[in-house]
Design goal:
Length: about 190
Amino acid sequence: DIGPVVVADTVGFIRHLPHKLVEAFRATLEETIQATILLHVIDCHDDRRDENIEQVEEVLAEIGADEIPQLQVFNKIDLLEDFEPRVDRNEEGIPVRAWVSAVTGAGLDLLFDAIVERLAEDVVHHFVVLGPADGKLRALLHEAGSVLSEEHRDTGESVVEVRLQNRDWQQLLSRAGVREDAIRLEQRNA
C-alpha cells in the first residue's frame, strides 16, 4: 500500500572500523545516504550488542547518514530464553525496534508491518488531473510505478490516482518541470 520499494543490503559494519576502510566503503555506503529508512540489523544475543550499536551509529555519522530514520531489527531472538517477537514504539507510538528471528521466521510479519507503517508516514495519495500537455509528468508517474488507476475523459484529460512517498512526488514534479501549485488535484474519497 506504499508503492514500490527498493531494498538495498549494504556492507556489514565491523567493530572499530578504521577510518580508511570507511573511506573505501564510502561508495558502497552511498545507498545508505539516499535511504528513506535504515533497517539496522542487530544480533540481540551478542554480549557486545550495545557497543556494536554505538559503532554503527558512529559510522553512520561519519558518512552523513545519522539523520535518516532508523528501525532497529533485533535478530536471533530464538537464542534468548522464552522471548516472544514484538515491536517497541517510541513515546509518539512510532515503531523503533522489531524483535525477530531470521532462522525461525518469528516476528517477520511484525517487522514487515513496522516497515510499512514507517514508510507510510510520508506518503501522498492524489487524484491528479492531467491534460494532453502533461504527458511528461504522466509518463514519469507510470515509470515510477505509482499509478493506482487512470480514467480518461471525453475532454482529453485524464485523472490519475497516484500513491508514493512525498520525496518521490517532489522529485517527479521537478523532473517534469512542474510546480506543485500548478497541479490540478481532484478531491475524492480514496
